[in-house]
Amino acid sequence: MQSPDDFDLDGMLDGMPAADASHEAPLPTRPARDMQGFLRKIPVSLTLEVGTAEISLADLASIDPGSVIELDKLAGAPLDIKINGTAIGKAEVVVAGENYGLRVIALDNLDLDALTS
Prior knowledge:
Elements: H1 9-14, H2 36-40, E1 46-49, H3 57-61, E2 79-83, E3 86-96, E4 99-107
Antiparallel strand pairs: 1-2, 2-3, 3-4
């Protein structure tokens, strides 16, 4: 019986025939799928972020109806449009019928076609 120190892996490999990739059958290729229509139907959550504030737990515990918490946005500044939490542009609030809406001011490279390439 050989000890692990006497084992000659290189010698064993030298005696084996080399693998020749030219004799292997090529893998079949599937035609590329057009995913644009499918991806465009996936629902996402669009939000308009007014601003944020960091407060202590003590301040949070003292909040009552009527309390005012100052946000990090200036009044009248464009608001952030977010898709699933990722900022994609700026907008302002408008009234659309009986609901609030948003008017897009700027978009940051929103290219849905890039998702399929």
